[in-house]
């Protein structure tokens, strides 16, 4: 992590200087101050670069005088629109422009209006500067980033330093998640993943690791059917952060569950070869939960939290689960495995049931790179959000908007639930057709929450970025760590009671497209002109089957497991 320091504004003796400026700052006192110190170079450079302070705009002036190597101007846009996200983006853009500098200073005085502004710009710089280069051995020196530290210039360095402490802890959690997701699958298998999580004990997290025999004794038939084709044994890791001083009998923790498929070939329902290397990050949900626990413990959050990750490798072999096999889950419900590439929901089914039975949490949130269908629906800008509780869903959406990790709520309902009805077991693990693949996956998970307030975040489209973003370099994003940390901080930390559940009600369609030949209805079930790259847990079934017609009744979306 970059070294971050805070100081009063003064001309640095060397290195680079970054000036974040709003549109209203052009020609103002701040530019005049630096223009005087640098012998008029700022005004001339601004004019030559036609820099207007627009959001996202930047310009670099080389050797501007005063012993500086470069002056970087970063636009903030309209001052009235400035917020923490804009400050973070400015810090990230600054870090990207400073890659060849060893030290730099950022004048944060133009970003005002809230106490944490200097810390926010520092957070953006730190998040963008992260790099996974563990396996690079031939990189040229000139290609390596040199930036080691940033000094943030501000009015009150002591206050900024205090604001930075919790942000630093969150950044450490983000980095843990990014590192786990970036690791190749031959290094990060389930046992290695579990061993790394034991290191969280140094932060005060209680860590329990369950091995193959433990899971067999518990009756984790759904999770174990995924791992049985692999030479790598499964693991379940239970992490507990007890941040409250009082332990009342009626107090309940909050729980976060992550899918951790360290590599997903699809099993016997094997994926196409093209792009399969990306399936090393099919454990991104578990990575996010791990990073979240590190963040909460690192900043000593006053809340009781349980984090559980189910870790498996999905491989084809002579011992692998076959399509058509029936397995018995921890909850006692039986599952007909139609598609072994719909494996993540099998892992989560047992972990969700176990979490509910053992901890009886106030709510559960699970994260998973669960379906390729969610990418078809939402692209890479939003994660899919499914929930049986309106209040929980609303709080997740709001927390996501605050930190720039967006989630879009998707429907649940009895009509979708009927699509996973099996002829020989309690349910099948995929719907009867390609339509609504992300929704039927969520309906499957809901059968294992036993009425507990619950949300499912399908992060298949947001866990990995193919391009640089202001605060996220290309690669693993750690999507969800900051969202869930904000959720905890704003709604659950330091509170004796959790918000009252707001059970969701199913919306019934007045008109359905069942049996229609409309392209809009059949688009996902129609063969594409080019095959899609393999996506996590696609669970695609036979195409072309009509969707079931919803019954004209209203039922609560919350369902109890069938016994």
TrEMBL record:
One of its GO terms (cellular component) is cytoplasm. Residues 492-563 are annotated as: Disordered. GO terms for molecular function: manganese ion binding; metalloaminopeptidase activity. Keywords: Aminopeptidase, Cytoplasm, Hydrolase, Manganese, Metal-binding, Protease. Mn(2+) 2 binds at residues 259, 264, 282, 343. It is an enzyme of class 3 (hydrolase). Presumably involved in the processing and regular turnover of intracellular proteins. Catalyzes the removal of unsubstituted N-terminal amino acids from various peptides. This is Probable cytosol aminopeptidase. It comes from the Bacteria. NCBIfam families: PRK00913.1-2, PRK00913.1-4, PRK00913.2-2, PRK00913.2-4. PANTHER family: CYTOSOL AMINOPEPTIDASE, LEUCINE AMINOPEPTIDASE-RELATED. It comes from Muricoccus pecuniae. HAMAP family: Cytosol_peptidase_M17 (MF_00181). InterPro entries: Leucine_aapep/pepB, Macro_dom-like, Peptidase_M17_C, Peptidase_M17_leu_NH2_pept, Peptidase_M17_N. GO terms for biological process: proteolysis.
């Amino acid at each position: 992590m970059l070294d971050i320091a805070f100081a009063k504004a003064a001309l640095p003796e060397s290195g680079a200087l970054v000036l974040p400026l709003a549109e209203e700052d052009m020609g103002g006192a701040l530019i005049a101050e630096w223009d005087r110190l640098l012998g008029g170079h700022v005004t001339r450079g601004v004019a030559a670069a036609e820099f207007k302070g627009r959001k996202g705009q930047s310009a670099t002036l080389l050797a501007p005088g005063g012993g500086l190597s470069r002056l970087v101007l970063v636009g903030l846009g309209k001052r009235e629109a400035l917020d923490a996200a804009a400050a973070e983006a400015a810090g990230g853009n600054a870090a990207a422009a400073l890659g060849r500098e060893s030290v730099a200073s950022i004048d944060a005085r133009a970003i005002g209006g809230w106490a944490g502004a200097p810390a926010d710009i520092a957070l953006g710089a730190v998040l963008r500067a992260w790099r996974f280069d563990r396996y690079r051995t031939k990189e040229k020196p000139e290609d390596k980033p040199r930036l080691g530290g940033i000094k943030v210039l501000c009015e009150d360095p002591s206050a900024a330093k205090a604001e930075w402490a919790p942000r630093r802890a969150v950044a450490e959690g983000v980095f843990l998640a990014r590192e786990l997701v970036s690791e190749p699958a031959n290094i990060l298998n389930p046992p290695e993943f579990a061993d790394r999580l034991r290191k969280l004990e140094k932060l005060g997290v209680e860590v329990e690791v369950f091995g193959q025999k433990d899971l067999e004794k518990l009756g984790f038939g759904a999770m174990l059917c995924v791992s049985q084709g692999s030479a790598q044994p499964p693991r379940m890791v239970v992490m507990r952060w007890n941040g409250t001083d009082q332990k009342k009998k009626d107090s309940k923790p909050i729980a976060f569950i992550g899918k951790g498929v360290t590599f997903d070939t699809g099993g016997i329902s094997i994926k196409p070869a093209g792009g399969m290397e990306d399936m090393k990050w099919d454990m991104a949900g578990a990575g996010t939960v791990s990073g979240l626990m590190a963040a909460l413990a690192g900043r000593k959050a006053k809340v009781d939290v349980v984090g559980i990750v189910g870790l498996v490798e999905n491989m084809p072999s002579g011992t692998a689960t076959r399509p058509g096999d029936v397995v018995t889950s921890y909850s006692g419900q039986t599952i007909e495995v139609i598609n072994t590439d719909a494996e993540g929901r099998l892992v989560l089914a047992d972990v969700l049931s176990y979490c509910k039975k053992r901890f009886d949490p106030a709510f559960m949130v699970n994260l998973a790179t669960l379906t390729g269908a969610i990418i078809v629906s939402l692209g890479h800008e939003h994660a899919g959000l499914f929930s049986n509780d309106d209040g929980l869903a609303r709080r997740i959406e709001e927390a996501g908007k605050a930190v720039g990790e967006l989630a879009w709520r998707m429907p649940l309902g009895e009509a979708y639930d009927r699509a996973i009805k099996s002829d020989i077991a309690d349910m099948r693990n995929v719907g009867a057709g390609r339509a609504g693949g992300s929704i039927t996956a969520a309906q499957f998970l809901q059968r294992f929450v036993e009425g507990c307030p619950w949300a499912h975040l399908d992060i298949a489209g947001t866990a990995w970025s193919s391009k640089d973003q202001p605060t996220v370099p290309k690669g693993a994003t750690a999507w969800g760590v900051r969202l869930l940390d904000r959720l905890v901080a704003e709604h659950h930390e330091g509170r004796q009671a959790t918000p009252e559940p707001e059970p969701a009600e199913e919306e019934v369609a007045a008109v359905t497209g069942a049996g229609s030949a409309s392209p809009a209805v059949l688009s996902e079930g129609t063969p594409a002109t080019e095959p899609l790259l393999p996506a996590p847990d696609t669970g695609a079934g036979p195409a072309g089957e009509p969707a079931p017609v919803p019954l004209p009744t209203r039922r609560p979306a919350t369902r109890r497991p069938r016994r």
